[in-house]
Write a structure and sequence with these properties.
The complex is a heterodimer of chains A (287) and B (204).
Chain A lengths: L5 H22 L8 H14 L5 H10 L1 H11 L10 H15 L5 E6 L5 H12 L6 E7 L2 H9 L1 E3 H4 L2 H7 L10 E4 L2 E4 L1 H4 L2 E5 L11 E6 L8 H14 E9 L14 E5 L4 E4 L10
Parallel strand pairs in A: 1-2, 1-7, 2-6, 7-8
Antiparallel strand pairs in A: 3-5, 4-5, 8-10, 9-10
Helix pairs in contact in A: 1-3, 3-4
Chain B lengths: L7 E6 L3 H8 L11 E5 L8 H9 L3 E4 L10 E4 L5 E4 L5 E4 L11 H12 L3 E5 L8 H9 L3 E5 L8 H9 L4 E3 L4 H9 L15
Parallel strand pairs in B: 1-2, 1-7, 2-4, 3-4, 7-8, 8-9
Antiparallel strand pairs in B: 5-6
Helix pairs in contact in B: 3-4, 4-5
Classes of the chains: A alpha/beta (287), B alpha/beta (204).
Chain lengths: 287, 204
């Protein structure tokens, strides 16, 4: 009654491992510690779109066709985002984090996994309304160069704003959302005083190192794509990048509960997954 | 050493799902031996309320699944609204915010297909009331991997499209009315490897 024997399942797993090892060797991108279940779905979609019969056939194509690899890579990164996504998070920021950040002469924020930049611009708007954008630096990073290009431009199709104005209000926005961009034709462009506080740059959480002395790290809905080993590695990098008493903001359904750095952090807003670092990151480095 | 035939249950439901959950969840005992993972299509802003409510009305512990949380018996886990719920090979949950599948997030197919990879023949898949075809592809995968497929009787389901689509896609093991689901799951959870499989007694 077992139609797919264990052997076949093992062979499939080996084939995916070979695919990932090949990509790593050829292009330097290491997906081996991504959450395997959703990674497999994305690989399957790529394989089906390319009408290839197997993972090894996909590897063959990826190995010899750099342009196709670029296409493939776009599909591997998660670009689902919007302005003031999860608006209650921004309200939590205003209430629990902003009053403390305001006491610093300048504030460094790392937005890790910024995709096309909407949430970095949302943060800039929030800081502007709280009166310290001119004392803040936002470093927004991603490993998808295509997304980073869009983020750098700061130009978005007007229809992509969709729920943005409503989100902005729910997020505790005190002004008029349309004051923050210029609209022309079907596009909007965020204003320069927002953009010039944000530095968009390439950074791969899997392979690249720490970003020093941050007051706040925002990394929302990125860690869910990593397995526990990679989560612990990245969180250890975050711990080392944060100042003593710095803040870590995760996605609404992400938690430090099942991670190695749990003891370094204290929850500030349990519902919005905002944590504060008090422990010594070097003392308990898992890797 | 006992070797249970099944190790987990995955359930998908959509329109009419609230009534269905209220019916079978309280009918399961606190010590129900198999972890249950549930993908229920719902609005984006439901905010954990459903899990809290279901937790209160029965003996089973019901909660929203958290990323990388291990599956435990005596627990039913709901996919959080706006997230796909997946099960990894080492039998922990993962969440994703990937694009919708079958216009849905959470998608039942996403849960079922990942669970089939993780549990193979040790999995029970259940498709209940719902208004679209999500879940039928996943149930077919579960069946193909040697797992057990259960579908709610469309004639008595609040919304018939989803069970009908599942029955069309797969030769299922059991078709049940809602009130017979919990007793059937309890019976299946007690089966040991090597027991005669209960596929003869199709329930109506």
């Amino acid at each position: 009654m077992i139609l797919v024997p264990e052997r076949e399942k093992e062979a499939e797993k080996m084939e995916i491992d070979m695919l990932l090892a090949g990509i790593h060797k050829r292009y330097g991108y290491d997906f081996s510690h991504y959450s395997r279940a959703s990674l497999k779905r994305r690989i399957d979609r790529a394989r089906e779109n390319a009408r290839l019969p197997s993972y090894t056939a996909l590897l063959d194509k990826l190995f010899h066709d750099e342009n196709y690899f670029d296409e493939f890579l776009k599909g591997m990164s998660i670009t689902v985002t919007e302005m003031f996504r999860d608006p209650l998070f921004y309200r939590g920021m205003r209430e629990a984090v902003v009053p403390l950040l305001k006491t610093f002469p300048f504030v460094k924020i790392w937005h890790a996994g910024c995709a096309t930049g909407e949430e970095a611009y949302s943060m800039a708007i929030l800081l502007h309304e709280e009166g310290f954008l001119d004392r803040a630096y936002i470093y927004a990073t991603d490993f998808n160069k295509h997304s980073l290009g869009k983020a750098q431009e700061g130009v978005y199709p007007a229809r992509s704003l969709g729920a943005a104005a409503a989100n902005y209000k729910t997020a505790g926005g005190t002004g008029d959302f349309s004051d923050y961009y210029n609209a022309s034709y079907d596009f909007v462009k965020f204003k320069n005083y927002l953009k010039e506080r944000i530095t968009f740059s390439y950074h791969n959480l899997v392979t690249d190192g720490v970003f020093g002395e941050m007051n706040l790290i925002c990394c929302r809905n990125v860690l869910i794509y990593f397995d526990k080993i990679l989560q612990d590695h990245v969180l250890s990098q975050f711990s080392k990048s944060l100042r003593h008493g710095g803040f870590l903001c995760l996605g609404n359904k992400e938690t430090l509960n099942f991670t190695a750095v749990k003891s370094l952090f204290e929850p500030v807003d349990t519902k919005q997954r905002i944590y504060r670092k008090w422990g010594d990151a070097d003392a308990t480095s898992p890797i | 050493m006992p070797h249970p035939r099944y190790k987990a249950v995955v359930i998908g439901l959509s329109a009419g799902g609230m009534h269905a959950l209220k019916t079978f969840i309280p009918a399961l005992p606190a010590a129900f031996a198999l972890p249950i993972a549930i993908a229920q299509h719902n609005s984006k802003s439901s905010d954990g309320f459903l899990a809290e409510y279901l937790d209160q009305i029965g003996a089973l512990t019901v909660k929203e699944a958290e990323d990388k949380e291990p599956l435990c018996s005596g627990h039913a886990y709901l996919a959080p609204a706006g997230y796909h719920l997946l099960i990894e090979e080492d039998q922990i949950f993962s969440l994703s915010v990937d694009p919708r599948v079958n216009y849905c997030c959470p998608s039942i197919d996403v849960l079922f297909e990942s669970a089939a990879d993780a549990f193979g023949e040790s999995l029970i898949g259940v498709v209940l009331t719902g208004g679209n075809g999500d879940g039928s592809k996943g149930l077919k995968t579960i069946k193909a991997r040697g797992g057990c497929a259960i579908v709610q009787n469309p004639e008595t389901a609040e919304s018939r499209a989803m069970p009908r689509a599942a029955l069309k896609a797969t030769a299922v093991d059991h078709t049940v009315d809602l009130e017979n689901l919990a007793p059937l799951l309890i019976q299946l959870s007690a089966l040991q490897n090597g027991d005669e499989h209960d596929s003869g007694s199709r329930r109506r």
